[in-house]
Amino acid sequence: MANFSMDPRPHAPPGFEVLPHQGPSRLYSYIAERLEVCNNDLTIAFFTPAISKRDFEPMSAALNEFFYQQMGVRLAEVQPSPIGDGFVRFSTPVERERFLDRIIEFGPEYQLRFIKHDEGINVREHDLDREVWIMLMLFPNDARNNICISKAISRFGLLRYWLDTKNNARIPTKVHLNDEARIPNSTRCSCFCWFATKIS
Prior knowledge:
Helices cover 16% and strands 22% of the residues. The chain is an alpha+beta fold. Strand 2 and strand 3 form a beta hairpin.
């Protein structure tokens, strides 16, 4: 997720309108200790000088042609990116490694470089360096499952496990935190109800 100011309008799906919103400046959510790596072929491309976002389509076509004609490589896809000039997916992780950490002369006016998709300014890592027991009081009984409890504490920590007891008043949970984590005195749990009507 973006943790910096950006314009979402160029990335909105067709038919959608982006409305101004004044929300919290930043929220934290701990997703997992280690994510399964499955995008070893994806990069973020940077041109010097930078290319206008309005010129993405001709840039994408020129990039595909350049790599096919000059490098003998077929790019799997090129997509707009709020960071740099575009997401570029190579056909294999080995192909990606060929072009990381190097400057490529892209015609007479531009230079091109790539970084891994998970090394941009949109990625932050926080060391979770302590474990604590937190007792959730009067947690909704129908929400006593891994997904709901993880969401309830995701703003300040990462759920390790919880004790499923017959006590209706509390749930003991073991949580990973970092030193700067601030545990709230309370949290509000909301449920979203979705109704479907069968049409025969």
